Amino acid sequence: MPADRRRHRTKLDAAARDRGIDSPGIDGHGNASGRSPGPRVARVPETHVHDTFSVDGIDTDRRERLLEFVLADRDRVSAVSATARNGTVGIHHAPSLARDDLREALESLGFVVDSGDAAFETRRASQFASARVAVAVLFGLMVATPYIAVLYPTRAEWLFYDPVTVQYLQSILDSQMATHFFVNLGALSGIAFLVACGPRIRRAIGALAEGRVTNDAAFVGGVTALFGYSTLAAFTGFDGTVHYDLVAYAVVAVTLWTHFGVDDPATDPTTADEPVPEAASEADEEPIALTDGGR
Fold first, then answer.
1. How many domains does the chain have?
2. H-helix or E-strand containing 90?
3. Would you say residue 293 lies in a domain?
4. What is the pLDDT of residue 292?
5. Domain range for residue 36?
6. Are residues 68 and 142 in the same domain?
7. Which of 49-58, 75-84, 194-203, 278-287 has the lowest mean pLDDT?
8. 176 in the same domain as 104
């Protein structure tokens, strides 16, 4: 953790001096010294409640400790846990001390504050987004591997030097094993589409219900049509090519495109009239709350 070069020049330092707190447990370089391992233990009355705030500006161990001592010195506050790593502050306090009062106290010390509830929603949305990327990539690989090993050699025979191997693979596809083969591919690509593109599917359904055709609706409709075509080709007498691989590739491409911020619904001209949820608009600006101080 870098040293706090703003020592004795911030509102937090001024508040600490006013309360006679002289950098407890912190050496002259802004680093923790003599700090006992594990969390501090405080006696919290049973009637006290707990609030968590997401705080931007706790960038050193020294400021973390100072903030804990300054807040704990307030009336009706029984315990404080601040964590620079997560940017969170957990406060146990009497019910008579309102959340807004605590927010004002933190802001008066020079911090940018967000409530724990909004921060939790932001983090949960981020976790779901990461999970969707993992599902898309993993399931996409699980679909692509059988295609590369079995289907592609039979569709582009001129790329392979061993016609005997190609003939063997074709015999597998002509047997009853092909049914199980395509069941697995259909299930994998379908699950990847539903899970990874869930928010996009919901937006598409909502737009179509309002009579609007958006980029989401076009994508969802195209992938659904391709999946249905492949299912007919795989399990009926319809003579067509099974393209579960293209479904998986589309899901992976769109999920990665969305995850890395290139595809933003707020900048989509087809959805420009849709209000952007407040929690979503703050996701890239506000720090994230994890647990009670991260202890």
1. 2
2. strand 88-93
3. no
4. 40
5. 11-110
6. no
7. 278-287
8. no
DSSP alpha helix (H) spans, the chain? 11-18, 61-72, 99-108, 116-146, 152-155, 163-174, 177-196, 198-209, 215-235, 244-259, 278-281
Are 186 and 260 members of one domain? yes
- Residue-level length of the chain: 295
Is residue 118 situated within a structural domain?
no
Q: Which residues contact 150 (CB under 8 A, 6 or more apart)?
A: 169, 172, 173, 181
- pLDDT 10s digits, 80-90: 988 887 778 88
Instruction: Give residue 3's identity as a one-letter amino acid code.
Output: A
Closest C-alpha among 150, 135, 165 to residue 252: 135
Are 86 and 230 contained in the same domain? Answer: no
Give yes or no: residues 258 and 147 share one domain.
yes
Percent of the chain at pLDDT exceeding 90: 34
Name the residue type at position 47. T
Mean predicted lDDT score pLDDT of the chain: 78
Can you read off the two tokens belonging to residue 262?
């290139």
Within 10 angstroms of residue 99's Cβ, the number of other Cβ atoms is 15
Beta carbons within 10 angstroms of residue 290's beta carbon: 18
The answer to whether residue 292 sits within a structural domain is no
Per-residue pLDDT, averaged over 118-135, amounts to 79
**Residue 40 in tokens:** 């501090």
C-alpha torsion sign, points 213, 262, 130, 128: negative
pTM of the predicted protein model = 0.54
For residues 29-51, give the mean pLDDT.
65
